[in-house]
Every structure is written in C-alpha cells, then in structure tokens.
Amino acid sequence: MNKKFKQVWDSKKGRPVLREIKENEKWQFDFGESIGMLAFGQWFPAICHGHQTYMTTYDFPIRLKFVESPLPPDDIDEEKEREYRGWNLPEWIKCAKELEKEGVKAIVTGCGITGTMQRELSKSVNIPVFTSTILFVPVIYNSLSYGKKVSILTVSSKMITRWDNMLLKECGVSESIPIVISGISESDYCETWWSQLNKGFDKKKVEEAIVKVALKMISEEPKIGAIVCECTEMPPYSEAIRNATGLPVFDAVDMVNYVYSLVKDR
Hints:
With 266 residues, this protein is α/β, with parallel strands linked by helices. It folds into 2 domains: 107 residues, Rossmann fold, CATH 3.40.50; 118 residues, 3-Layer(aba) Sandwich (Rossmann fold). Helix content is 34%, strand content 18%. Strand 5, helix 3 and strand 6 form a beta-alpha-beta unit. The two termini are 30 Å apart.
C-alpha cells in the first residue's frame, strides 16, 4: 500500500516538508473521489456509456478498483464456496479495505450478485458498503400501495435464490415482502441478451428483448408496483423498461447516484 503524505511547514528549515499521514488523520485527505467501486474485468461491447461500471455514466469522479481474482478458487468444495458467499471473499475484503485507506467515503460493487457478501464486506470497513440494488427492495416495497409487489429483474433467478435465498437475506429482503423474480436466461430471449458479449451486438434488439420480458412479467402478475433491476448490465435499458411498463424502475446507476448524494461534499 502506498503511503500518504501531507505538506507541513518546517520552521527550523524555513520551508515546507512532507510528513507521513498518521492512521487517524487519513479520513481528512482524499482526491475528490467520494465513491469507490469494486469491479472485476468484464470486457465486452455492452460496457459503454450508461453501464454501471463505465465512468462517463456519472457526473462525479469514482475511484475504480479491480478485484483481480473475484471468483472462488477452483480447488474449494461446495461448503467452502458457500462460506465464501460464492466469491473469493478474502480478496474482496482486501480490496474494500484498500479503498477505505485511499480515502473514499462509501463503496459500491459492480455486480448485484455480490450482495451475498453484504454483511461480510460491511463489517470489514468503517464506511458504508452498497453491494446490490436488492438492498433497496424493502424501501421500495414500503413505498407502494398495500397489496403491491416488487419485481426483481435479473439474468438468472437461480442466482437470486441460491443457497436458501442467501442474497435476499443478506440484503434484508424478508419472506414477508412479496417479490416476483424474473430471469432473462430463463426466458425466450436468453440468446439475444447474451449477444452483448459479441462484437457488433445490436443494442436495440437487446433492449426490445428485455422490455418484452418485463411486459410479460407484469401481464402475468398485475400486482407488480415497481421493478428493481439487479444486473449491472441493465441500466442502459431502464428508461425503455420504464416507458413500456409505466412503472418505477430502480437500477444500479440509480444506486450509485443515491450513494453519492449521501456522502458528497456540499
């Protein structure tokens, strides 16, 4: 870890000198990056303006840190993988601590499924951590009329309910909150969605596919009152979903903007 220094006046030398910043002083110093983002290398054409991990999406600076080995090691068993929350937990904790030392005031992550690590990451640092839009499901539910449900739009519904609903529990979504989970990978539009991995993919076709999934979802469950997009690939299509369904839509970019509003200098 690089040391941090501050400039102080040395009266004996009659000039400014650099002094290493003490641990209890570090909170005073940053370079204007209030938000730190933990991400892993996702290199495909859909990473563009409007995507959660594309920095021009935001009107404020973000300190981006790549988790070099984000997934669980290949040599661990199922029990250990569950203990690691489906990720390489020690590596994520290490990177979260580094962001804190580098002066950010809050941390977000670049994949909604990292919500399985919410409590472990939160207790590893002394600044707020927001791993997933699923954290906002309880708030959104409580804002809706009685009897309404919250829809979670995701890539794979199995990842939301894996390990006895670990992701939902970590993010505070209790069984008393009525939710509807819809996975694009389980729909007729799975192939279109994954075309984002290919060079020259048709963004309009992907948008049409995700809108059709959303419309089918609310036609089958008319009590849906709001949609939460779990996947960080979905923000570029949120406006189209909102316009087509007429429902409030909350995505990962909305989450980052919200977190920034909490910690920015005023």
